[in-house]
Design goal:
By secondary structure, this protein is α+β, with helices and mostly antiparallel strands. Helices cover 36% and strands 14% of the residues. It is elongated, with a radius of gyration of 24 Å.
Amino acid sequence: MVTADKRKGKVVLFTSEDDSLTHFQWHDREKNEVVIDLIVINDAYLEKIEKCTTGRVYILRFTSSDKKMFFWMQEPKEENDADLIKKFNEAVGAEIPKKGASGNASAPAPGAQAPAAGSNAANSANAGMHSAQVQQILQQFLESQAAQGARAAPVPLGAVLTTDALQGLLTDETACAEMMALLPDGHKSTEDLREVLGSPQLQQSMHSLSQAIHSDQLPTLFSSLGLNPSAISQAAPGSDALEILCKTMEANSKKDEPKGPEGPSSGSA
């Protein structure tokens, strides 16, 4: 059961100029501050909860995780609701599952996160709901907000792999050999590699990868790279996702390094 947050809110979806990542934000309009700030890749989408009769309620779902967030539409008129939701979903670009593909798409799960945009018309649909359940939902919400507040601004991949840094790899013979092996046949020269490292296509790919790194898809990314996803949960609270990935890759690389020959043992023969 989810009850309404009475604050006046606003949902904003935008690509930040600072980190080139797509942000989903919920603003408290009364205090003029950002309360929720999520990095979303093409896996988030909004859909209406048709069974709710106490307000126009929408649920934000993710195709890569079970996260759910609820929002009460505050626009006075509902004529433009469908168009607004369509524009939002098209902008994010998620492949929305068909109805019935994974159970009842409209039924909220017990204990789901409920950071809702308030509406005076939206009240509890079940007055007999146990206070323990209410406390559980509120606790989850507060914990999620505390985690958001402790997290520093995300570092995009392009801030680390700058054009100068990528071009600098051309002086490393080992790195060049490894990268050229990934190029298509007939395009394995140093000049071809230089062109790829400076191409807009590579920048776009790094942008997409940054989105995945700072989204709920990070554990999936770890698994696809052969890394242990437990490193994510073991990291210090507020750690940057890119830093966790780099440190894990570095530790994994050191494990695979061949050990040097052992020296002569000491002691008497």
